[in-house]
Amino acid sequence: ALGGPASQAAQAMLVTTTVPGAADAVAARRDDPSEHVRRGVMETLVGRRDLRALPLVEQVLAGSNPQQRMEAVSHLATLRPPDVRDRLRLLIGDADTYVRMRAVERLGVVGDRRDVPALIAALRDVTPPVRWAAASSLGRLKDERALRPLESALK
Questions:
Q1: CA 39/CA 7 separation, integer angstroms
Q2: I need a labelling partner for 147 at 20 to 30 A (CA). Which of 12, 53, 70, 154 fits?
Q3: In the predicted model, what is the mean pLDDT of residues 38-56?
Q4: Which residues are within 8 A (CB) of 44 and not within 5 positions of it... i.e. 6 or more apart?
């Protein structure tokens, strides 16, 4: 069993999603007054790659909890709304190091070579975790445009 009230709520909701129509019942609880229930709903819907989780993910991204915001970046990439790449590129400019790092990682996972310029720019981030994530994502994309910037970053 996972720990914490949100994870426990998500587990309970996930069990109910095997019943036809249960996902609709879970999604209907997106506006529940309890943060634990909303987080459980978000985790459950993200696990099903259900875009109805997107408003909850956006709420967390707009919040101030760094750990939750970093997880929300991963959720965003899992959901893959049509504008996921644009959203992730915007998050590369976030004030929080680990939100930037996760956005850079997830761009590599999304795997679109059109993001190579943004990832090359992330090689110049002021913090090592973001630069490392950028190098890793560029390696995953295997695009020749990244060779020189990667070599320069190693110097």
A1: 8
A2: 70
A3: 92
A4: 10, 13, 14, 17, 26
Span 75-116, pLDDT tens digits: 999 999 999 999 999 999 999 999 999 999 999 999 999 999
Q: Is the separation of the CB atoms in 50 and 60 below 8 Å?
A: no
Please report the sign of the dihedral spanned by the C-alpha atoms of residue 108, residue 112, residue 113, residue 114: negative
The token pair that represents 70 in the structure block? 């970093």
Residue with the two structure tokens 């993200």:
46
Quote the CA–CA distance of 117 and 55 in Å, as a whole number.
Answer: 29
**Position 85, amino acid:** R
Query: What does the pLDDT look like over 110-144, one tens digit per residue?
Result: 999 999 999 999 999 999 999 999 999 999 999 99
Residues with Cβ within 8 Å of 107's Cβ and at least 6 positions away in sequence, in order, are 85, 88, 89, 92, 115, 118, 119, 137
Q: What is the largest CA-CA distance in the chain?
A: 57
Q: Where do we find the tokens 């975790």?
A: 129
